Amino acid sequence: MGRFSCPPTRGLDDDLNEEERDQADNLMLVCDDEHDELDKKGSRDAFTIDFLRMRKQRHEDRVHLQTEMGATDRTAAIRMIDGLRGQSTKLTRGEVADAVMHGAGKFPHFPASTRNTIEIDLRGLPGEKAGGPDYYRVATKKIDEVMDGKVAEAIATEEIGHLSVFAIARLPLLVYLGAKLDDTVATDVYQRHRQTETWTWPDSDAEVGFELDIPTAQHDTVEAVLVLSISGTIHPGELPAAVQHLPAFNITVDSTPFNDVVSGPRVLQAFMQTCGQLIGAFEETHKHVRRLHVFPAMPLSVAVVLGRAFNPDVHPTMTIYDRVNHEYVAAMEVNPR
Predict the structure, then answer these.
(1) Residue 334 contacts residue 318 (beta carbons within 8 Å)
(2) Domains (ranges, CATH) in the chain?
(3) 62 CB neighbour count, 10 Å cutoff
């Protein structure tokens, strides 16, 4: 590695001649305190040559990516966080930047914010832990303030040409957020992965299919059920008795349902195509359906995509259910008509 302030230096450890030691590839610039920390006797085994070269390369790759980006490579990142039933949640700007740079080759940029992200912070709202109508009413109002305010204004003035969505919240609120996304703006939705505890796609080429089961049309019935068994399985007997008689649409994954089933963006694209088939049924064979009771066992990103798929002016109102104390209860409406 390059020359450090306190000998012996790792630059002399490598089998390099004097000219090679002075080249930029062998130079690492750090501040005085870091010089002392990296080269002190007890640190040299931890800060090896290979480790320092790796850190140097990561930093150079990130700088190279950012300095090459033009206006078309920018994205406005939306961060939405709630307390998830009182639990501590975290979604840092660094995690957002890593995900969009490595996943889409873009850089988070929003001129109206010094933090370069759009934040919807739902933590600490009254009734957060238990949920309930009052909590959802306040939470949706906060979402509206941001999406109908600064986001809508920035889209209208073309400050925003691309959106990246990062959200940790109760599933009904994620569906609601998806419904607020503007169809005219290209949008990427990201997923937090439990196995890696990051938002960066573990497998950008991963592909998973979805199957849609469409019930026989019943023209005298204006309500229907949508069951999504994607991160887990919902059995018919688990639904509230009041809706068990309704015709049921079912979306299932063609592999084993689990939390990290969405491991790459293509999986979300496949789900969006399945939503297109569902919408097609409402526009062709099930035009009479005015209300859809939605029972979700699905990853966070899928909930956002589901909300985005529905047109509030054309498609059924969705009543989103939440699982509370092992029972499904109606939480809130999305796209009421």
Answers:
(1) yes
(2) 10-67 (no CATH), 71-189 (3.40.50), 210-334 (no CATH)
(3) 15
User: Residue 329's pLDDT is what?
Assistant: 95
Contact 253, 208 (CB under 8 A): yes
The pLDDT assigned to 45 comes to 65
The b-or-e profile of 155-184 (16+ CB within 10 A means b, else e) is: beeebbebbbbbbbbbbbbbbbbbbbbeee
How far apart CA 51 and CA 33 sit, in angstroms, is: 19
pLDDT digits (tens, 9 = 90+) for 289-332: 999 999 999 999 999 999 999 998 899 999 999 998 889 999 99
- Residue whose C-alpha is closest to residue 307's, from 185, 193, 180, 203: 180
User: CB of 213 within 8 A of CB of 111?
Assistant: no
pTM: 0.78
Percent of the chain with pLDDT over 90: 57
d(CA 168, CA 165): 10
* Tokens at 337, concatenated: 């008509």
